[in-house]
Structures are given as C-alpha cells and as structure tokens.
Batch of 3 targets.
Target 1
Amino acid sequence: GAERPGELREAARVGPRDLQGGVRFYALNAIDRASHGAGIEIVPDISDERVAAALVSLWGRLGLPARLQLDNGGPFVAPKGLGLVVRLCLQQGVTPRFIPAREPWRNGTVEHFNDTFDKRFFRQERFTSLAHLVERARDFETFHNANHRYRATNGRTPAESADEDKPRTPRPLGELPNEWPAAGRVEFVRFIRSDRKLRLLNRAITMPDTLVYEYVTAVLDLATQPADGNLRLLREDE
C-alpha cells in the first residue's frame, strides 16, 4: 500500500556554505516522503554530536519516523563504520536505511527540497549572522509545511497530509546511554556487480551468482549475535 506519514523520511546535508564574512554552515534537511513535511536544522559543523543534536531537534518538531533514509557520506556513516548518528536512531526506535553509493536520485524527495531550500530561501535573502539564518530557516520551514501544496499529495499541504496519529517524540540526548541498544535494524541497499561482492562496513562478502546485477538489502540485526551471522540479505523489494 501507499506509504503513510511517518513511515519513511529522507535526510541529507547541504553544504558547506558560507555567509558574508566567511561564516561557514551546513543545513541538515529532512522531509517525510508521504506528507512532504520538512525540517531544516542549520549547524556550524557536522561533528557527530552536532548532527545528533540536530536530528533530535528535528524530530521534536516533526516526530520520529519509522525509518530514516540516508546517503553514505559524512555525517551519517563514520569513516570507521557506524557511529553516533546510527546509534541515536536505533536508541529512538528509528531504522536507518542507507541508499546505494552514487545513487542520489533514490533520495529524490529531499534532493528536490534541497533545491527549493536553495532557490526559494537561501538565495532570496541576505543573512547578517548564523543566528539570523537559523531564525529565518525556521520561518521558512513553518511556512513550507503550512502552505506548500504538492501534486503527490493531491494538492494538500504537509500540515494537512500529516497523519492524525500523534507523532512519537524523541528522548532527549542527555537521557540516552553511551552503549548500543540490544535490538534494532540497520538497512543497506546495495547493487551487486559482476565481481559478486557485497561491500559493507569494511567487509566484502561474496554473493551467489543469482544476485549479480541485482539490488539487495542487507539488514544488520543487533538482536542477533555477530557469531550467528547478524547480517541478513533480502532482495530489494522484500
């Protein structure tokens, strides 16, 4: 069936960009694929801690999604593997889903919103400071969600499309433990090339011939001990 609001949200980073005077910033943008409800967080850097705090702030306004779809770049995947951002998702009951590398069209809803952010917001105004940019970005987010009508939602605004269900609210960062939760899933969509290798988190796993030139979803299941093979493979549409 059709996706419901809150089921899948796409997120992406924009930047680095510079304000007048050389003040650097990034935007962390997220958009719900069903309702098109969007959120913008302006951050001065993309350290794990800053991005985690920005996500909690976004979720405080938009509610927690069931799944958060991300690309494979920083700040979502740390060079050494899965880091604070993924742990935060799992602790909040959100399943992170990573699209295949070099396929940005899979996050087309947020890529389109990034374009809107650029053309209708960032290039339309002069910002005197980071604080001014943060304030105006929040105004733009509020205006977008109340007024922007999408063909995909039969002309409804994101606010009108949002589910009547009460959105789940995130736990504050300070309440979360430093260890990984005992259960949760991380999903990686990957394309298997002719060498039959699934490359994931510094591992290269040989796949059967039947999966060459196919997309698979590799599911890392925290509830399964690594020794028992905590990586399950599904065809992409399963």
Target 2
Amino acid sequence: TIGVIGYGSQGHAHALNLKDNGLNVIVGLYEGSKSKAVAESNGLRVGLVADVARESDIIMVVIPDTSAAQVYVEWIRPNLIPGNTMMFAHGFNIHYKTIIPPDTVDVSMVAPKAPGHRMREVFTKGSGVPGLLAIHQDVTGNAREIGLAYAKGVGCTRAGVLDTTFKEETETDL
C-alpha cells in the first residue's frame, strides 16, 4: 500500500500514475482539504494523513517543504512502523534535517524532473519524465529496489532514472 501525502501539483500525478499502473494507492490529506473531492472524483481512496501513514507500507511526501516537517511530526512519525519506507519527491527536508526519520525505516527519494501536470500528461501518452533516485537510509536492504519500483510506477523509468543524493538534488534544485 502506497500512501501519497498531498494532492497538489506532484501529488495528483504520483497518485494517478501509480493507480493507472495497478498499484494500491491512498491519498493522505488534512481534515477539510478541498482536494478530497477532486481525488475521490479521480477514483482514488482518500483518508486523513495519520490514517494513511498507519495503513501504508510506503509513504510518499509530496506536500510543500514548508509544512512537511510539522505534518511529519504530528501525523506521520507516530504511525511509522519498522520496515516502512519514507519517500520524498524533493530532498530539502532530509538534507536540512527538518525531518529526521527513525533508524528503523528506509528513506529514499524519487524526484521526477517535471511539474506534476507535465508528468501526468506525458504518462497518459505512454511515456514518462526522467527522475532522480536517492537512498538516504537502507535498513531493509531493499530501499533501492523499492525506489526503482516506485519510479516505474510513476512512469520515470520510461524516460530514465539517475542516481543522486539528497544533498545534490536539493542544492541543484535551489
């Protein structure tokens, strides 16, 4: 089960591409989010962030960097279990240590190199956008394989996936 936290520019593309590839996706949103109706109308299951984090094996954080740390502390961290995978589409919060996941979970990044609307458009035409893959923490020994599988699910492997680090992705993006 993949929990996509957020349904904005990147979140909608990630969730829909994963769903179209037959994966079990749940979108995690805050109480009262206007995106709930949109995600549900797109055929996605939606829940509160804490519930989605509790139910998911992979948790992809695609919300703004400015709110991610607070969302993590309040709703994601208390619901992580050993062996989960925390994923990010941007390296900022891990690189600058505003989020410090426990040493019992894998931490990786799949960063598509396009805005969400373009990522989705290209995917629906049978292609994909290139992506970056970084592994910050590999407790299970499977972080790279899970990251590549996720990259395939969102369509990045159709165009190519390059290895990077959280530091390199963050600093070149800024």
Target 3
Amino acid sequence: MLSRHSQPNPSAAPVQKLRLRYAKRGRMRFTSHRDVARAFERGLRRAGVPMAHSQGFHPHPKISWAGAAPTGVASEAEYVEIQLVEPVDPGALAVELDAALPAGLDVLEVLPAGPGSLAERIDASRWRVELPGVPAKRLARAVDALLAATSAEVTKLTKDGKRTIDVRPSVVSAEVPETPED
C-alpha cells in the first residue's frame, strides 16, 4: 500500500501530480475507454494511492485522460494524469498500480507531471495500422494519394447524425514499410 496514513483526507489540496504511460494490450484492447477508466479507479483504490478528489456532492478522483484509444485498438502509449494528496515515489506507484490492474492494462512509466494540462502538451500521435491481405504496393499507392491530396473528407456518424470532416490536415506523415515479399 502506498498511503502512509490509514485514511488520507481526499478533499485536501493536491500536493503531487503524476503522469502515467500505460499500454492496452491483448484482450483488454476490446475494452471501452469508460471501462478502462473504471478499472484504473479500482486499481488506484486497491494500490492505496492517496488520490485527491473533486469537491461537491459526488466527489470523484482527480484523473485527467489524454484522449482514448478506440475500442478494439491496442496501444503502447496511452496517458493519464493523477493528482495526489500525499507525495509518493513514482517508481513504487508504478509497481503497485501495475499489480492492481487487470492483465492487459500495463503501467509502463510514472513521472512527475509538468505544468499545464496533459492535452496541451501532446502535439501528435503515432499510429501503426496493419491491413492483412492488402498488398504493400497497393497500400503505398493509396498512402501516396492521401499525402498528395489537399483534403480527405470522411463522413462520421455522431449522436447528432452524420458529420463530414476533413482528416487530411491531421495526417503529418505516413509510410508503408517495405516487406520481403514485395
């Protein structure tokens, strides 16, 4: 257990903010972000992490998520920040929390968080997309066409209906690795 006291005051002002990098692997890739968040909250409680909580009628732990990997997608670099009412050793927290989380949610790194929000500090994401059965040459032509295009509109189904967005400005770079069978 990480907490030095039997019951830290969760409504106390936060004294430490930590950034966690975790992986979502194996069968856990099919877990929704909401369920991942619940698993983290349970894991934090089990590990005895002295979490800071919001004020009000229904206090909740001060946890900030940086985006969410889509359901069905594995990830090696998901980020979350937590606020604590007592300082803890980041290395010890990584070990304790990793042991308290379900298999497939793996804590990879815990560091002191810098100023500002986590979302403000993330400029880009790197994705690896595997398309089994698509020949590399065909895929390379499609990637070249995307990079040469000035726009790439995608229709997305939202709770308010269909919405068309231009995804091309979001693609900074893309490449198709050479494969031995090409």
